[in-house]
Write a structure and sequence with these properties.
2 domains, globular, 8 strands, alpha+beta, two-stranded antiparallel ribbon, single chain
C-alpha cells in the first residue's frame, strides 16, 4: 500500500479557510466549549497542583502581558498558556471528545488567549475567535480519533490530549498569526515532533501537566514557524512521523476524510461530574438508585457492569486521596449512593476517607462488558432485606444523546466561578461569555479582565 502523503499540508490548508465556511452549529459548539473552559480554568486555580505550577511560572516569567484566568498576577504568553491549560483540566471537569477521550479546549483556547494578549495584531472579533477555536478543535479531535481508532496500535498508556491538544493549539495559533500554508504546515509538524504524554500521570498533579505542556508546545510551534523555523511537510503521516511512530496501524487518510463536511468536534461533551467521563454512566445509575432506596435499608452489595475502558482507565479500587478518586469508579458509585450527589465535595480527601464511603467501596463489584457502549452502565443493588434494585443507563448525562443544556452548563459555570469572583461578577462574566459571538475586535480584553477578582 503506498504511503499516504499531503495529510499534514491538507490539515494546514483547511485550518486557514474562512470562518464563514463553518456551520452555525459548529460555532455554537465552540461557544459552549469556551464557556466551559473559562469556568473550569477559574475553578481549577484552587487546586494544590495549580498553586505549585503558578509559583514556578511566576518565578521564571518574562514580560507580563497575559492573563491567568482568576488571578491578578500576569505572565508571559507561554507561561500563561501553560498555567491556564493546567487549571482548566486539573479538576477533571473539562470537556471531552467522546470518540478519543481527549480534552481539547483547554490547550487550544489557552494558547489563543495568551497569543492575543501577547500580540495585539492577533486580536480578532468574537465570531472569528470562535471560528479559529473551531478549526483548532476539529484538527485536535481528528488527530485524537485517528490515534485511538480500533487497530491503530496505539498503546493505552499514551495520554493523547498532550498530542492532539498540541497540534490543535498550533493550528489555532498559526491561524491567528496569519501564517501561510507552508508555515502552518511546519507549525503542525513542529508541534507533533514535541508532543507526548503518559497515562501513568493520571490521579496525580501531572495529569494536568500534560495538556498544559501541549498548549505551550502548540503556541511555541506556531511562533517558531512564523519566523521561518521549518519542519518536515509530513509531520503527521511521513516515515517516522507522528502516526507511524505512535499508531502504526492508523489510517492517516482518515485525518482528512470528509474534512469540512463531517465534524468530529460535534461530539464534544461537557461533564456534569468532576471525574473521568467513563465513570459518568455509573454515577447516573447510582444517583437514580439512591433516591429509590429506602433510607433505612443498608446496601449489602453493588454490582456494576461497564464498558471495559471504564475499568482500564478508572478501575482503582481504593483511592488514597482526592486525585486518586478522579479515576475510581468504585468511589463515585459509593459516594453517589450514600450522599445522593456527585460534585466537588465528593472529589475531596474528606470524601475519600469518609468511613461510610470507604466501607461501601469494598462492596462494589465491577465487571467489564464489551457489549456495552462507553457511556452505558448497569448497576444492581442488593439491600440488607434481600431486595434488589437495578438501573440501566443507556447514555450518560453529557453524552451526545443527552447533552448538557445551556442552562445546565451555565449552572456548572457559576458553581465553579462564584467561589473565586463572588456571585455578581460571576454572573456578569457568564453573560460576557455567552455574548462572545457579538464581541468586536478589541473586546476580548474586557472579557479577560472580568475573569480577574477585584483587588
Amino acid at each position: 500500500m503506498p504511503e499516504p502523503t499531503g495529510v499534514t499540508r491538507a490539515l494546514a490548508r483547511y485550518s486557514l479557510t474562512p470562518s464563514a465556511d463553518l456551520p452555525a452549529a459548529i460555532l455554537a459548539q465552540a461557544a459552549r466549549a469556551f464557556l466551559n473552559h473559562v469556568g473550569c480554568t477559574i475553578g481549577g486555580l484552587v487546586e494544590p497542583g495549580s498553586q505549585i505550577a503558578m509559583a514556578q511560572a511566576d518565578l521564571f516569567s518574562g514580560a507580563r502581558h497575559a492573563t491567568v484566568l482568576g488571578r491578578r498576577t500576569r505572565l508571559d504568553a507561554l507561561h500563561a498558556a501553560y498555567i491556564n491549560a493546567l487549571q482548566s483540566c486539573i479538576q477533571t471537569f473539562d470537556d471531552t471528545h467522546l470518540a478519543s477521550v481527549i480534552h481539547p479546549t483547554g490547550p487550544i483556547a489557552s494558547a489563543m488567549l495568551a497569543l492575543i494578549e501577547h500580540d495585539p495584531a492577533c486580536d480578532v472579533d468574537g465570531t472569528e475567535f470562535l471560528g479559529t477555536l473551531s478549526f483548532g478543535l476539529e484538527i485536535a479531535c481528528r488527530v485524537g480519533a485517528v490515534l485511538t481508532a480500533p487497530g491503530s496500535g496505539l498503546h493505552l498508556g499514551v495520554f493523547t490530549t498532550g498530542i492532539a491538544g498540541a497540534i490543535g493549539a498550533a493550528a489555532a495559533s498559526g491561524r491567528l498569526l496569519g501564517l501561510d500554508e507552508q508555515r502552518q504546515t511546519w507549525a503542525l509538524g513542529i508541534a507533533a515532533a514535541q508532543a507526548g504524554g503518559l497515562r501513568v500521570s493520571h490521579a496525580t498533579m501531572t495529569g494536568g501537566l500534560i495538556p498544559a505542556l501541549g498548549s505551550r508546545i502548540g503556541l511555541s510551534a506556531a511562533l517558531l514557524a512564523a519566523q521561518g523555523f521549518d519542519c518536515s511537510e509530513a509531520g503527521l503521516e511521513g516515515r517516522n512521523g507522528l502516526l507511524p511512530v505512535f499508531a502504526p496501524g492508523a489510517r492517516a487518510d482518515d485525518l482528512v476524510t470528509y474534512l469540512g463536511e463531517r465534524f468530529e468536534m460535534a461530539d464534544l461533551a461537557y461533564k456534569p461530574y468532576p471525574c473521568g467521563i467513563v465513570i459518568h454512566p455509573a454515577i447516573d445509575a447510582c444517583l437514580a438508585l439512591a433516591t429509590e432506596r429506602p433510607a433505612d435499608e443498608a446496601i449489602e452489595q453493588v454490582r456494576l457492569r461497564v464498558h471495559p475502558l471504564t475499568l482500564q482507565l478508572t478501575g482503582l479500587k481504593h483511592p488514597l486521596h482526592a486525585m486518586d478518586a478522579k479515576v475510581s469508579v468504585g468511589h463515585w458509585c459509593a459516594a453517589a449512593l450514600l450522599r445522593q450527589r456527585a460534585g466537588m465535595t465528593e472529589a475531596t480527601d474528606e470524601a475519600v476517607h469518609d468511613p461510610d464511603i470507604k466501607a461501601l467501596r469494598d462492596r462494589v463489584d465491577a465487571t467489564a462488558d464489551a457489549s456495552l457502549g462507553r457511556d452505558e452502565a448497569y448497576v444492581e443493588l442488593t439491600l440488607a432485606s434481600g431486595r434488589s434494585l437495578s438501573c440501566h443507563i443507556p447514555h450518560a448525562r453529557g453524552s451526545r444523546e443527552r447533552p448538557l443544556t445551556d442552562a445546565e452548563l451555565a449552572e456548572k459555570f457559576l458553581k465553579l466561578v462564584e467561589p473565586i469572583l463572588d456571585a455578581e461578577p460571576a454572573c456578569a462574566l457568564l453573560d460576557r461569555c455567552w455574548s462572545l459571538p457579538a464581541i468586536r475586535r478589541g473586546g476580548l480584553a474586557a472579557l479577560l479582565a472580568a475573569t480577574v477578582p477585584p483587588c
